[in-house]
């Protein structure tokens, strides 16, 4: 079977219809039938039988389909890689990104990238770290950006920079805070913390241990809920600096924790799908945006 015959066989088997396969391949129905008949003649056995007006795959077809499906996937990967390598000035970048980066770093990067590559489009999905692997293996995204490093030889990390964990609070809640927030300062306030399902939640656990019983801890599963609670004065939210940047209001203050708690940010992609020049250029810009954010000390508006 040559590549065209494999493509036709795969389409007919998947769609269970010659006419449907013809639509998938954008060719005529007689053309599909002719190729399928020629394939069966060369193989010496039937791939499909007509049973009560329906096309039914034979046992031999079932056996062959596994290999054909694998080849079809590999051809698709080859074609996508070729498209990725083609251009550094036009195309579409498909991004999966954590919600904490979706309203600050990534929008800024896209806006700035448009000035140098105006013909580049973007397809953006907000996803959580526990669905990173699924999004990548399903080819829903070219890469994902987050602080959860997958230990998988099939997934390649690209370091982007570091971020800090800190406290987000109304300015009038802790008027004496200027540079950092330490454990003693947190003991006197209700704390809004992230649930264990959030990747960075465990980083601040030592600071929240042995809290006075009169002080409550509000646990949330979304960083933006934590930010909204802090904005309303419900307590001090322990979140990352990038979420804080996306929640900018004059009344909110973000300070890094003391001792400093940092986390790494990476772009993750399938090892068998190398990043294009276009995508690498975009990630270079993301890296530039992250550097000053991680290095700016002191009290800042959210």
Explain this structure to me?
This protein is an alpha/beta fold and 302 residues long. Helices cover 42% and strands 25% of the residues. It is built from twelve helices and 13 strands. It has helices at 3-15, 18-25, 29-43, 59-86, 99-102, 105-116, 132-137, 183-187, 205-208, 223-231, 241-245, 277-295, and strands spanning 48-51, 54-57, 90-97, 119-126, 143-146, 155-170, 181-182, 191-194, 217-220, 236-240, 252-258, 262-270, 300-301. The strands form two sheets. Strands 3, 4, 5, 6, 7, 8, 9, 10, 11, 12 and 13 form an eleven-stranded mixed β-sheet that branches. Helix 1 (3-15) crosses helix 3 and helix 1 (3-15) crosses helix 4 (59-86). The longest helix has 28 residues, at 59-86. The termini are far apart. Residues 294-299 have low confidence and may be disordered.
